[in-house]
User: Fold this.
Amino acid sequence: MRALVIFDGDCGLCNGFVAWLITHDPQRRFLIAGSAGEAGRAALDAAGLGPEIAASTIVVWDGREALLRTDALARIARGLPWPWRAAAAMRVVPRPLRDAAYDQVARRRPRRPAEDPACGVPRRDLRELWLSRLVTVETIDDLAEAPAPRL
Assistant:
């Protein structure tokens, strides 16, 4: 089973990252869910996290473990092909340092609407791919019951 990336769907930076992710994930290892949608809220609940967490951080949940901030980014990198996989080496930096850098970016990111074309709304040619990666509440149930993926 695949891992789920839960993101702030109202954030242009987050939407831009997700658009980048789905175009660089040819093995389709990652599904996506906006944190404000029904599936995103269900996933956060199933992961034991409050809905407010995804307003300031990306979450990767594999049905067993929820990873936040740079741990989530390292998990994503590990699941991508080369050269992107090399970014998982960020884990050699102590978590407090890398998460402090992550938090600085999160605090300073412009809160531009996700509909702003400069901020990562899926291009028309990505719309079908984007929609194919969106989870449903049923997918959340399947993810919670499946064995943890090896990324």
